[in-house]
């Protein structure tokens, strides 16, 4: 005799594991794009030092020939204008135990799609426009600390502030670091930093572990200062329309205008090491 077994649908949803945004730790919001499509930033020159001439004929000549300071501009725009749209039918929402509830679906879209995309774009720009990009090397437990020290020395020579530096690593690179006997990682990290991906501290720099899918291919590590890259999100709009024309249910739409740029005078604040 055949027996029809009971099938039960639960209201819980099998959510994907997704991290929150990581880019705020390595970028800044120094420039405002409110009311403008692009901004111009001045880059002002300096004067050379001279030997003071105590026997100069005139008082002015004793200091050397006056120079005219240069003042050129750099223009930056936000190139990414991205959007999404999806519909939730009212009966679909009702007959699936409300798992398609519009606000929850919107939060899921932002967490699983929007944030990873903007993070990946920002890290990609930082690696592309880094001021120091040595040849790719194979990172091992033997050489990883020396390579990181080279990065630190490069930032020191460029007079990048020693405070607030961030060492960005992939999970694979972090595994290599853990195997290196020369590296001593300080793990006393506050909860607020852990939410931004900080897992330890090395030589004064916060070590931020970022998922590989948000980093460029062949990413080794990046030592950077947040002053080097500006990553504004000018428009962050998400709207839930209930029963719009032609839809019995909800129309959810989102639009994001964002970008990232590294200024010429601050690009030395980023050191990117690729792997072979």
- State the domain count: 2
- Please, what is the average pLDDT? 87
Number of helices: 5
Low-confidence stretches: 5-17
Give the overall shape.
flat
Organism: Faecalibacterium langellae
Protein name: Phage major capsid protein
SSE map:
Layout: E1 38-44, E2 71-77, E3 80-89, H1 90-94, H2 102-128, H3 144-157, E4 166-169, H4 171-179, H5 191-194, E5 198-202, E6 205-209, E7 219-224, E8 229-230, E9 233-242, E10 249-258, E11 261-262, E12 270-274
Parallel strand pairs: 4-6
Antiparallel strand pairs: 1-2, 3-10, 4-7, 5-6, 7-12, 8-11, 9-10
Account of the 3D structure:
This protein has five helices and twelve strands. A hairpin with a 6-residue loop joins strand 9 and strand 10 (249-258). It has 276 residues and is of the alpha+beta class. The model is unreliable at 5-17 (pLDDT under 50). It has two domains: 34-75, no CATH class; 79-274, no CATH class. The longest helix has 27 residues, at 102-128.
Summarize this structure briefly.
This is Phage major capsid protein. The chain has two domains: 34-75, no CATH class; 79-274, no CATH class. Helices cover 21% and strands 26% of the residues.
Task: List the defining traits of the structure above.
5-stranded mixed beta sheet; alpha+beta; 21% helix; Phage major capsid protein; 5 helices; 2 domains
